[in-house]
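During the reporting period the student researcher (J.K.) took over the structure-prediction task from the postdoctoral fellow and processed the backlog of single-chain submissions. One of the processed entries is reproduced below for the supervisory committee.
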Amino acid sequence: MLLNSQNLQGLTTGFRNNFNTGFNLAESHYAQIATMVPSTTGKESYPWLGDMPGIKEWIGDREIHKLEQHDYTIVNKPWEMSLGVNKDSVDDDQYGVYAPLFSNMGFETARFPDQLVFEQLLNGFSLEGYDGQYFFDDDHLGYDEDGAEVSYSNDGGGSSAPWFLLDTRRPLKPIIFQQRRAFDFVSLDKAEDENVFMRKEFLYGVDGRMNVGYGFHQMAYGSKATLDGTSFNAAFAAMMGQKKKSGQPLGIKPNLLVVGAANRAAALEVVKAERKADGATNINRDAVDVLVTEWLS
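J.K. obtained the following structure tokens:
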């Protein structure tokens, strides 16, 4: 290839097309459990409600539910992936061998939000949420039917492969995906660029700024107990049994069971099989959907 500006521009366009092809091939699930929040600064602070208020009869003055400052902040992080293409390979028309690498770059870029989100979910046993407790903890603040404060657990304990029961029906999902700047394909592809002059290498890459954090712990239950009908029912009951400060039901109803490869068979047996191993009717059949993700394996 003649290394003039027109041909080099065409080369970059080709690599960008390869990138887009790979990007569009990727399967992504993070939006099922994470709320996308746009960010306009280096970090965002989230003033949370300590409760999820609902509609009530209007008697007298309105009841104002004020935001409680829990000092929960998500700091955006920069992320990148870069590839170098040897100048001699382009000069010898061997650039075609790089096409699969750029397709894979696009594929990995599209999957990266899944990695961030599901790893955040997995780390909920050791990372704090807005209330200063681990996201999955046995001592969250809750309320009983009289509105009195009680201890609430969304941690099923155990030491086996983790699984998660989530309520993802609401606008705010259990995980927050905060995006300052989406990934962008960039290049240093001019013959006079320093990288070409000094190292005979055209450079291409993607970079973006984003991070993840936690929403309401009330909408998620994490467990490392053996996944079976008993542990599933306990998690389901705990989530649905939560109350507001008023004593009314919080309105949580799990709809998604998230597992890795180790719990795939158990998850399908618990909520998808028509009958149990002993032949009895499986009362939990289709109680929730199942999402199997490689990021929990």
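The committee noted the following: The mean pLDDT is 90.
J.K. will present the remaining backlog at the next meeting.
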